[in-house]
Amino acid sequence: MTVQIFGKGKQVARLRRHARLRKKIVGTPERPRLVVSRSNRHMVAQIIDDTKGITLVSESTLHNDFQGFEGTKSEAAKRVGEMIAKKALDAGITKVVFDRGGNKYTGRVAAVADGAREGGLAL
């Protein structure tokens, strides 16, 4: 399947990067895909089994666990990574393949990955 994305700008460049990455990255039952989505305010991380098309575990800064969280957005992103790692280990998932969603691997996206590694996931 080829996806052609035309245009200019940051959003189009991110979509182009994501399409290029998804050609190579596939989540399996043994090693599901850890997907990171970011907005200007929030971070969302999901662990997805692509063979069944289901979300196994999810965590985000929108959940009630983050009510009253004091810290920077990068600290919140790292905490999201740690929390999803804890949920994944409880669900019996130890290895994942990291899908940065077309975002550049820096800042908050890298903080989620670092938090997941510190939480015990093998990326």
TrEMBL record:
Q: Which Gene3D superfamilies match?
A: 3.30.420.100
Question: Which InterPro entries does the annotation name?
Answer: Ribosomal_L18, Ribosomal_uL18_bac-type, Ribosomal_uL18_bac/plant/anim
Q: Name one GO molecular function term.
A: 5S rRNA binding
Gene Ontology biological-process entries: translation
| N-terminal signal peptide | none
> Which Pfam families does this entry report, sorted A to Z?
Ribosomal_L18p
Keyword line: Ribonucleoprotein, Ribosomal protein, RNA-binding, rRNA-binding
What name goes with this protein? Answer: Large ribosomal subunit protein uL18
